[in-house]
Write a structure and sequence with these properties.
Keywords: Membrane, Transmembrane, Transmembrane helix. It holds the Pfam family Abhydrolase_1. With about 375 residues, the protein is α/β, with parallel strands linked by helices. The protein is built from 13 helices and eight strands. Strands 1-2-4-3-5-6-7-8 form an eight-stranded mixed sheet, with helices on both faces. Helix 11 links the parallel strand 7 and strand 8. It starts with a helix and ends with a helix.
Length: about 375
């Protein structure tokens, strides 16, 4: 009887050995769930770091760079109405040359032209409100000019420029030079304040009728503007700074003759969401700016005392389709014949709208001729 019991017990042992302890199975499953949860938590933390750390570091860097990279000779001018604008003047003498940058760009694009012409006379560049070092007012602040001119339109920019030149006590009459949007601003300013402008120089001016063409409007608002909005988002998230470090994004003005200070300043602006936001606004409201200029030229013709020069290249923009370049050229010819029939036309071979920093010597040469002519006239009087 005893042997039988022992045999039965020994027969049951393998069966029991093959079975899993329910407690052990539950414990093993719990460990698996904990391990899987830990992995998810780690991934979540990494994603949070990727989302929040780059913008925070970018903001901290912008605060430091904003003070360090302000041009040494530049000044922040109080233009009234709670606004301050950045003005950089080099050289001495008269007539003063005022340079207004292309759409959405800071005054650094004029670095070569300014240095070249400043050996003859005083040359001033400035940042339009919201661009570069001219900080735009907060949304809840107002200057009162919004009742007349919308934000980031030519009328508003001309009003800002007029107050800037008065506050800085810039001698008149001066030579006013503008490229693209700067050309629209120059036209508007010259028609309103004609006694202050001796010479108006338009570089690749955007025709006011361009936005009446559907193909141009599709390009401007369907392709160009979304790319600028993506750049603004990239700056706001800190991605632009990372791409600059990796060499994916490069400054617009570069080369052996460009100082490291100018290069670093451009990198700062590429990473600055406030600057990029204003650049987007200038492009977005360009059709309204063009409409304002069209109205003002009809309302108040340009004084015969103001000479007009137009500088163009082989095309408006080598990166856009040829039919758009042809359309711009035809409309430029049309508005020049209607508004400035006696304008002096200067053609720069192999150039487009980037000529002010890619072929600056040709522009400088023309401006130096204007300065020499005005200085000779002043001496004879």
């Amino acid at each position: 009887m005893r042997r039988r019991t022992e045999a039965q017990a020994s027969n049951r042992e393998p069966v029991n050995a093959g079975r899993k302890d329910p407690d052990q199975s539950v414990h093993s499953q719990a460990e698996g769930r904990v391990s899987y949860g830990s992995v998810l938590m780690t991934i979540g933390k990494c994603l949070l770091l990727l989302v929040f750390i780059p913008p925070f570091l970018n903001y901290a860097s912008l605060q430091r760079e904003g003070q360090m990279l302000l041009p040494k000779d530049g000044q922040i001018v109080d233009v009234g109405l709670g606004q301050k604008m950045h003005l950089l003047c080099k050289g001495q003498g008269q007539p003063v040359v005022i340079l207004d940058a292309p759409t959405g760009m800071s005054s650094d694009v004029w670095v070569h032209v300014q240095e070249s012409v400043a050996v003859l006379t005083k040359v001033c560049t400035f940042d339009r409100m919201g661009l570069g070092f001219s900080k735009r007012l907060l949304p809840n602040e107002t200057t009162g000019t919004e009742k007349v001119w919308g934000m980031s339109t030519t009328g508003r920019m001309v009003d800002d420029l007029h107050r800037l030149l008065q506050a800085a006590e810039i001698a008149t009459p001066f030579i006013l030079v503008g490229s693209e949007l700067g050309a629209l601003n120059g036209r508007f300013y010259s028609h309103i304040h004609d006694a202050q402008v001796s010479d108006l120089v338009l570089i690749d001016p955007i025709p006011e009728d361009a936005f009446e063409d559907d193909q141009w409007t599709d390009y401007w608002y369907g392709k160009l503007l979304p790319s600028l909005q993506a750049r603004q988002f990239s700056a706001a998230t800190g991605l632009s700074r990372m791409l600059i470090i990796l060499g994916v994004i490069e400054p617009t003005v570069k080369g052996e003759n460009v100082s490291e200070e100018v290069v670093q300043r451009q990198k700062y602006l590429l990473s600055n969401p406030a600057h990029q936001s204003s650049a987007v606004d200038e492009h977005y409201f360009l059709n309204e700016s063009a409409s304002q200029v069209k109205d003002i030229t009809k309302f108040k013709p340009l004084s015969s005392r103001t000479s007009v020069s137009v500088i163009t290249g082989d095309s408006f923009d080598q990166d856009i389709p040829e039919h758009l370049n042809q359309m711009v050229a035809e409309l430029q010819k049309k508005f020049l014949e209607e508004s400035y029939p006696s304008a002096n036309h200067v053609h720069i071979k192999g150039a487009d709208r980037r000529m002010i920093y890619k072929k600056p010597s040709a522009i400088s040469q023309h401006l130096r001729k204007l300065v020499n002519r005005r200085q000779a006239k002043q001496q004879s009087e």
